[in-house]
Amino acid sequence: AGHGGAAGHGACAEGAGPPAPERVLFPPTFSVSEIKNKQRRHFMFLRWKQQQRKEKLAAKKKRRKEREALGDKAPPKAIPKTIENQRVYDETTVDPNDEEVAFDEATDEFAPYFNRQTVPKILITTSDRPRGRTVRFCEQLATVIPNSHVYYRRGLALKRIIPQCIARDFTDLIVINEDRKIPNGLVLSHLPDGPTAHFRMSSVRLRKEIKRKGKEPTEHVPEVILNNFTTRLGHSVGRMFASLFPHDPQFIGRQVATFHNQRDYIFFRFHRYIFKSEKKVGIQELGPRFTLKLRSLQKGTFDSKFGEYEWIHKRREMDTSRRKFHL
User: Fold this and answer.
1) With contact defined as beta carbons under 8 Å apart, do 263 and 280 qualify?
2) What residue spans carry the region label Disordered (predicted)?
3) pLDDT digits (tens, 9 = 90+) for 104-127
């Protein structure tokens, strides 16, 4: 029996056909998530990601070589698809040459500021008993917005503050709300007749928390940049922000306040230009920085009970598509 087994083994070795194919680690339909062992699963996922990166890089090199070989005949580069450029069309998108829009802007509540008939005067206040971080944020915001004054609430209701602001010729009221010692909301009310916008605030960074920040801002009136406020609602919000600043920026100060709208999040940054040469320009962030998300726009001044709302953000009804934006 032993001899037969050996002969059989030898015959198998001598008359062996093609070598057995290498064993495939995973069948094509196998998913890494099916691996039960957590460490093994993590290891295999990292290997898969590494392989994906290599393939992507190889494809990129191949495309670049093909473009170099074709030279001027190379086809134009494909524009990558993003959420922004796949945006669902909004029928309220503003055409700059629209006569109706031009008439509305010439007669709305902010027209005197753009015609330089009124100088902005801003009152910045807080919720009751603000903590240190909110107080410091208000003080730094006052250095960004010219002709702004910080006062503390001391238990006064907003309905009582607004008439006092109007009597003292304030043109706008900014209220910074906080939750658990962190600023989390901003109410911007245009005086004397509104409108009032309520924003959720997040990602607040004070000056000392910003890396590679510049020196303290000077008292020069900054330039204001408004990006991507394209709809009628976005236009109204953009004009509200613009009317906080005098309309004669002092370019010698090289300071710029930017409100950048992206996917209905408004990112605020405050920078200073650094001219390295005649052609090269760098920027230096001065701070503070924060992000706003519009929650409501109300006609008139602040009135939580009987106020008439022009627009309210209703998440379940409005956020049905990731490519639908309102500003």
Assistant:
1) no
2) 1-21, 51-81
3) 888 888 888 888 888 999 999 998
